C-alpha cells in the first residue's frame, strides 16, 4: 500500500464514517431519552433509499402502504388508550397526529410522484414519507412497555427488526436499488479525487451534528430531551412528559435515518434487508461513545468507517469480521471503566 492508495481509502472511510455518524448519533439520541436500543434504525435508512428509488421511477413507494398500515394501528391503539383513561375529548387531536398527518404525507407524495419533480424535491419527498415511521413504531411497540427493563426493550427491538425485514420484502420486493448521485462535480485534493457525493455526505453529517448541538444547548425542546435523558422521574415532576419527549427523539432519529438512507443509496446497492449491517456498524461507533457521548460516538463512527475501508482493501471477505471484532476490546474497556466508577461510588 502506497500513500496514494492510503489517501483514497481514507476518503472512502470518512465518507462511510459520516453515514455511520448520522445513524450512531440517532441511536444514542433515542437510547438516552427512551432507553431503547433502536435496532431497526438501519432498516428505516434502507427504506428511505428504496423510497427514493421508487420515486425516481415515478412509482408510489411501498413506504406508502407501510405508513398507512402503521398509522391505522397506532391511531386505534391511541384512541383505545385515551378512551380507557376517560380522555375522550383528546381523541380527535390524537387521530390528527397519528392518522391524519401520515395520510396527508402519503397523499402529497402520491400526487407529486406523477409530476416528475427535480431530484432534490424527490429526496425531500422520500424523507417526508419515511419521517412518521419511527414515531409510529414507538407508539405501537415501545410505548406500551416504556417502563420495562433495558434488556426486554432490546429483545423487542430485535424482534421488531425481523418484522420490518419481512414487511420490507412485502412492500418493496427483493430487488436491490442504486440511485444516481445528487452532485456530479468532484474536487481534486492532493492528487485524490473527492466526489461531490462524498462531500455531500460529510457535509450532512457535520450539519446534523451542529444542529443537534444547537438544539440541545439553545432550544426548549432540546433541554426537555436532555432532562428526560438524565432523569425521567425528575423530568416528569418538572412537567415534562417522557412520552412526548420520546416521540420527539424518534422523530429526530427517523429524520437522520432517512437522510443517511438517501445519501448512501448512490454509493451502495440497497436491498430491503441492507439496513441491519448499516445499523450494526453504527452501533459499534455508539458503543465507543458509551451510548451517552455524542462527540465520542461521532469519532467512533468515523473510526469504524476508516477501519472498514482499510480492511476491505486487505480482505473484502473479512472486512465485516474485522469491524465487528472492534466490539471486543471496546466492551472490555467500557466494562473496566464501569467497575472503576462503581468502586468510586461505593467509597
Q: Secondary-structure element sequence?
A: HHHHHHHEEHHHHHHHH
Spatial strand order of the main sheet: 1-2
Rounded radius of gyration (Å): 21 Å
Give unreliable regions as ranges.
341-347
The general outline is globular
Structural class assignment: mainly alpha
The number of distinct β-strands equals 2
Tally of contiguous helical segments: 15
Beginning-to-end CA distance, first to last residue:
51 Å
What is the number of domains? 1
User: How much helix, percentage-wise, in residues?
Assistant: over 70%
Characterize the biggest β-sheet.
2 strands, antiparallel
User: Strand share of the residues?
Assistant: under 5%
Task: Summarize model confidence as the mean pLDDT.
Answer: 84
Q: Could you explain how this protein is built, in words?
A:
With 347 residues, this protein is mostly helical. The chain has one domain (3-179, 199-346). Helix content is 76%, strand content 2%. It is built from 15 helices and two strands. The chain has helices at residues 3-34, 41-56, 62-84, 91-112, 119-130, 133-142, 150-172, 196-218, 220-230, 232-237, 242-264, 275-288, 294-314, 319-325, 327-346, and strands spanning 186-189, 192-195. It has a two-stranded antiparallel sheet with strand order 1-2. Helix 8 (196-218) crosses helix 9 (220-230). The longest helix has 32 residues, at 3-34. The N and C termini lie far apart (51 Å).
Amino acid at each position: 500500500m502506497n500513500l496514494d492508495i492510503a489517501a483514497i481509502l481514507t476518503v472512502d472511510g470518512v465518507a462511510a464514517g459520516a453515514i455511520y455518524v448520522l445513524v450512531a448519533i440517532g441511536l444514542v439520541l433515542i437510547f438516552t431519552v427512551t432507553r431503547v436500543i433502536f435496532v431497526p434504525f438501519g432498516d428505516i435508512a434502507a427504506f428511505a433509499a428504496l423510497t427514493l428509488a421508487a420515486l425516481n421511477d415515478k412509482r408510489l413507494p411501498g413506504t406508502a402502504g407501510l405508513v398507512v398500515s402503521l398509522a391505522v394501528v397506532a391511531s386505534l391503539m391511541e384512541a383505545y388508550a385515551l378512551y380507557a383513561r376517560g380522555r375522550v375529548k383528546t381523541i380527535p387531536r390524537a387521530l390528527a397526529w397519528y392518522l391524519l398527518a401520515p395520510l396527508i404525507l402519503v397523499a402529497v407524495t402520491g400526487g407529486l410522484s406523477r409530476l416528475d419533480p427535480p431530484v432534490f424535491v424527490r429526496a425531500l419527498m422520500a424523507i417526508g414519507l419515511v419521517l412518521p415511521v419511527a414515531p409510529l413504531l414507538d407508539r405501537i411497540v415501545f410505548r406500551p412497555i416504556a417502563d420495562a427493563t433495558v434488556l426486554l426493550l432490546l429483545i423487542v427491538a430485535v424482534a421488531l427488526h425481523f418484522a420490518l425485514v419481512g414487511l420490507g420484502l412485502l412492500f418493496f420486493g427483493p430487488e436491490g436499488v442504486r440511485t444516481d448521485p445528487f452532485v456530479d462535480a468532484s474536487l481534486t485534493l492532493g492528487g485524490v479525487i473527492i466526489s461531490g457525493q462524498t462531500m455531500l455526505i460529510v457535509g450532512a453529517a457535520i450539519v446534523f451534528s451542529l444542529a443537534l448541538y444547537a438544539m440541545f444547548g439553545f432550544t426548549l425542546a432540546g433541554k426537555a430531551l436532555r432532562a428526560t435523558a438524565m432523569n425521567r422521574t425528575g423530568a416528569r415532576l418538572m412537567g415534562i412528559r417522557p412520552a412526548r419527549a420520546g416521540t420527539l427523539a424518534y422523530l429526530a432519529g427517523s429524520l437522520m435515518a432517512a437522510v443517511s438512507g438517501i445519501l448512501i443509496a448512490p454509493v451502495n446497492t440497497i436491498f430491503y434487508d441492507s439496513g441491519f449491517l448499516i445499523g450494526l456498524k453504527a452501533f459499534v461507533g455508539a458503543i465507543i461513545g458509551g451510548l451517552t457521548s455524542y462527540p465520542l460516538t461521532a469519532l467512533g463512527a468515523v473510526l469504524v468507517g476508516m477501519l472498514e475501508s482499510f480492511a476491505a482493501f486487505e480482505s473484502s471477505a473479512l472486512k465485516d469480521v474485522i469491524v465487528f471484532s472492534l466490539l471486543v476490546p471496546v466492551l472490555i474497556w467500557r466494562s473496566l471503566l464501569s467497575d472503576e466508577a462503581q468502586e468510586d461510588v461505593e467509597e
